[in-house]
């Protein structure tokens, strides 16, 4: 008795392997299980098949059996001898087998005379390939994806003589050839892609099937020309405000400069980098954005070099830069206090006072005024910026020269303008609904409205006349009309209300003239003031502990930089924005913060009786608050966002 070992993952597979190898039926197989593992990761089975010793009789019987074989895809059948059994063929899952023209569904006996036909199910699939080109809308990138669909090819496996045939099938896949570089370039050219083709990516597509979203071309972005820039030869970093450790911003640090000599280069114009033309994948040029021309001019005390790229000082003095223009102004330095010994100081250039300005003195500067000490019971006027390091007591500080008066003049004219416009609307309403008797003249109606609803008109007219005198404009037509037809019993001289429209037009013209004559805004930087008037055509910056019972007026913004700085009593008025720290006091002292209707007011801490004013409207804070933001909404109502202190 002979034995043979078979191993596989399961007992069933071991048996199947043995029956195929030995060419005997399962029921005729004699075996013994040697090993069987059924683990999660490892499965193994081993059987020992007992081979009976064939005697001459059994060999004779075996030789009588019919057999069937496959060679090169063709089926051959040998008939059995007398007493032998015929060969058998079994149906196959993926193969159509016909015996004598009939498709078999079960095991069938076959002979050499049997007509056996095999065929595979019809498959109309043909190998194909697709190349998809995706050009981005901006025509700056192109991606390609390829897809290869194969055709399945089936083949019958050869088999030696067996008595019972189970046909096995081999499956192969037939693909179209890969795209070559010429084909890909041709496809890109057809869709207009001619620039920025990436050779390495094209080669990648020729080596591997089924590529997805491969970048094959990329345009060249244009590089904008960089603006020319100015290299300053004086001062510190002019493009950044200074900030200390506590977060306090030095709004005036940007203007710090030093004295220079005649012939010094104070600025140089440097050329920015040239731009580069781009190109999209279709080969279309993409122009770069040209740089804006910078303003580079000499205004006063300096000149532009012949080459046009340098500003050179023509005098000894102090340089400054505003709106693209360079200035060099002479400096008058007072090494001591300004007092009776020095007399009042009046100088067309910059003034630097090393000491204090004592009682009763006056300083008038045509440019920046710097006072390192205190100012007491005195007056400081400057057409340029004012910087005062010491305390200001019982004094008047005007930054911007006569512009401060012009600004007040403009503000009063503007309020009078809007008041007259409102009055005209009221007159039209009264006439529309016939709210007064027919015998009432327009002059009487205007007089009644001024006396009842527009009581601020006489006061505004008085202010305008006062400022007109200071502006040497007292005898103008506007002033004469205000005195004749608006003040006192003047309205009774008006025959028709359209005369108010004429006054409105004259006010608009006057405002335009005054605005056109304003100089560049001047800023004031101080530490502390008390019982004083401070006015500026630009910003007012408090660097120290703030103000007490003073009138502060700015044609732009007012900032209190130092944390805890106070604004206690008086009136603080700005055109656009006020940023204060502590306003008022626990004793509820009245303090007014005023801006135009479009302005904003920010306060760290505001006590009761803080008044927030927007144009002619006011709102009084009734409870101490923190993190206050006040503004006027779209309906013209004052809004005060705050947290309870």
Short description:
The protein has 645 residues and is of the alpha/beta class. α5 (402-432) runs antiparallel to α7 and α5 (402-432) packs antiparallel against α9 (498-516).
Structural features, described:
By secondary structure, this protein is α/β, with parallel strands linked by helices. It has five domains: 1-53; 70-219, no CATH class; 230-326, no CATH class; 402-516; 539-645, 3 Solenoid (Pectate Lyase C-like). It contains nine helices and 49 strands. The chain has a 21-stranded mixed beta sheet that branches. β4 and β5 (74-78) form a beta hairpin. α5 (402-432) packs antiparallel against α7 (456-470) and α5 (402-432) packs antiparallel against α9 (498-516). The chain starts with a strand and ends with a strand. 26% of the residues are buried. The model is unreliable at 236-243 and 249-257 (pLDDT under 50).
């Amino acid at each position: 008795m002979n034995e043979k070992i078979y191993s596989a993952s399961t007992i069933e597979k071991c048996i199947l392997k043995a029956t195929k190898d030995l060419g005997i039926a399962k029921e005729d197989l004699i075996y013994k299980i040697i090993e069987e593992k059924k683990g999660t990761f490892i499965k193994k089975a081993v059987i020992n098949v007992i081979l009976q010793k064939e005697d001459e009789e059994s060999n004779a019987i075996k030789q009588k059996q019919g057999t069937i074989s496959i060679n090169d895809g063709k089926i051959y059948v040998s008939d059995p001898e007398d007493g032998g059994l015929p060969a058998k063929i079994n149906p196959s899952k993926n193969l159509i087998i016909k015996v004598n023209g009939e498709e078999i569904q079960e095991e069938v006996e076959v002979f050499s005379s049997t007509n056996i036909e095999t065929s595979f199910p019809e498959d109309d699939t043909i190998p194909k390939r697709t190349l998809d080109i995706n050009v981005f809308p901006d025509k700056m990138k192109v991606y390609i994806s390829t897809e290869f669909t194969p055709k399945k090819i089936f083949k019958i496996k050869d088999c030696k003589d067996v008595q019972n045939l189970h046909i096995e099938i081999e499956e192969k896949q037939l693909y179209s050839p890969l795209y070559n570089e010429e084909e890909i370039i041709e496809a890109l050219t057809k869709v207009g892609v001619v620039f920025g083709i990436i050779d390495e990516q094209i080669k990648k597509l020729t080596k591997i099937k089924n590529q997805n979203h491969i970048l094959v071309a990329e345009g060249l972005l244009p590089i904008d020309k960089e603006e020319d820039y100015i290299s300053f030869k004086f001062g510190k970093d002019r493009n950044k405000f200074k900030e200390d450790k506590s977060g306090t911003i030095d709004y005036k640090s940007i203007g710090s400069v030093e004295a220079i000599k005649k012939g010094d280069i104070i600025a140089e114009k440097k050329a920015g980098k040239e731009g580069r033309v781009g190109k999209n994948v279709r080969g279309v040029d993409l122009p770069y954005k040209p740089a804006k021309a910078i303003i580079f001019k000499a205004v006063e005390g300096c000149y532009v070099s012949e080459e046009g790229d340098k500003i050179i000082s023509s005098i000894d003095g102090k340089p400054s830069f505003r709106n693209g223009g360079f200035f060099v102004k002479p400096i008058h330095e007072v090494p001591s206090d300004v007092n009776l010994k020095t007399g009042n100081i009046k100088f067309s250039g910059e003034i630097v006072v090393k000491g204090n300005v004592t009682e009763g003195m006056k300083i008038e500067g045509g440019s920046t005024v710097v006072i390192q000490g205190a100012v007491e019971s005195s007056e400081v006027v400057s057409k340029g910026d004012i910087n005062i390091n010491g305390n200001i007591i019982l004094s008047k500080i005007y930054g911007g020269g006569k512009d401060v008066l012009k600004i007040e003049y403009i503000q009063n004219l503007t309020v009078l303008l809007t008041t007259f416009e409102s009055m005209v609307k009221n007159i039209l309403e009264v006439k529309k609904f016939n709210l007064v008797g027919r015998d009432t003249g327009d002059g009487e109606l205007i007089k009644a409205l001024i006396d009842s609803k527009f009581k601020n008109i006489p006061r505004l007219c008085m202010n305008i006349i006062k400022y007109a005198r200071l502006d040497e404009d007292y005898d103008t037509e506007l002033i004469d009309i205000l005195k004749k037809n608006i003040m006192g019993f003047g309205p009774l001289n008006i025959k028709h209300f359209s005369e108010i429209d004429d006054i409105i037009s004259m006010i608009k013209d006057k405002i335009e003239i005054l605005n056109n004559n304003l100089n560049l805004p001047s800023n004031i930087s101080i530490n502390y003031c008390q019982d004083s008037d401070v006015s500026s055509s630009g910003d007012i910056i408090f660097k120290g502990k703030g103000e007490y019972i003073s009138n502060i007026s700015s044609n732009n913004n007012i900032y209190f930089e130092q944390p805890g700085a106070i604004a206690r009593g008086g009136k603080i008025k700005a055109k656009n924005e006020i940023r204060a720290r502590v306003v008022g006091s626990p004793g509820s002292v009245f303090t007014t913060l005023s801006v135009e209707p479009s302005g904003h007011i920010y306060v760290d801490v505001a006590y009761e009786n803080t008044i927030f004013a927007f144009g002619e409207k006011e709102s009084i804070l009734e409870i101490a608050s923190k993190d206050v933001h006040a503004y006027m909404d779209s309906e013209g109502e004052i809004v005060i966002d705050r947290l309870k202190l």
